[in-house]
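Format notes (please read before filing issues)

Several people have asked whether sequences and structure tokens are stored in separate files. They are not. Every record keeps both together, in the order shown below: the sequence lines, then the token lines. Line labels are part of the format and must not be stripped during preprocessing.
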Amino acid sequence: MPFGLETQYPNLYILIVAAPGKCRKGPTVGLAKRMLSDLQLPVFVDSPTKRALTKFMHKISDTSHFEYAGKSMVQSPPILISKELSSFFAVDPKSMIEVLTDLYDFHADKWEYETSGEGKDTILCPCVNCLFATTPRWMAANLPEDAIGGGFTSRFVLVGAESKYKSVSLPPPINEGLYRDLLLDLGQISKLVGLFKWGEGALELYDEWYESVDSIVKKIKDERLHGNVYRMHTIAIKVAMSLSCSASSDLVITPEKMEQSITLLTDALRNAHLALGAHGRSKTGIDTDRIIRNLRDLYPGSISFKELLRYNYLNTNKEELNTVLEDCRAMGLVTSKLVGEEMHFKYKKGEK
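Then the structure lines:
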């Protein structure tokens, strides 16, 4: 879709973040990878290097051709999928962060990567999609400070969660008929070619919502998410294009799809802070986040200082725990009272 001097493509970076095993994020990513692989679309492997990725994309550039407006066109559309971001970034996280940040909105004719001794990879018209999953703790411990809230995470739709959508003890077998129909749909979507257009009323709806983005920033207390909000308008167009493809082949963004896109992104933004965990410069940030979650989720009544230290001694000590609890009280997240001779602490409901 034309966007000023640039062109918006329906490529998305999506990151699902939740505690290990708690919200069942893995099956979602696994199903997507299986379906795309069954369609023989260019899915990239886990644990790559920057060089391996650029070689893969260079190879796609040689084989991915399509016809548009009577001309033969080329594109490099890799799909990067991993159930564990830690696996995808295992070899060289800094270089992978740099290349994914650069390629997100680079769709021009040529992108080149040259190494000192292994030659040069030329990538024609890159269009990268990402679907990753990880945990808040891994995010806090492994991503560099300038990646969180900066150019890297601000390009992602951050899907954070703390509980399962529903509890299923034994997932049923896959519905083969439905699966086959979905593959047919995805196959048709992968062959769509052309420019998107605004349907009647869709641009007006988008423009009216766009004027509210600055006010959304002011409501977001977590400054690490401000970059995501400022990019929200372009991501909304990308999501709307994707939703349009799921319903029709006419490449028209309708008001309904634009509104659905805005709703999805707004809902995701409400829990996006959960995805970033306790990442920050404070030495006690991770411990503070963990203690807040302990008091909120594990001890809904109250707990003594002695018991809380006993459960957390592997991660903190007496002095550090005192500091953390004092910070929690100063933020109004925790209350304390003397019970007998011991101080007890309780999470203040509705504060976070």
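For reference, the curators noted about this record: The radius of gyration is 23 Å. The longest strand covers residues 129-134.
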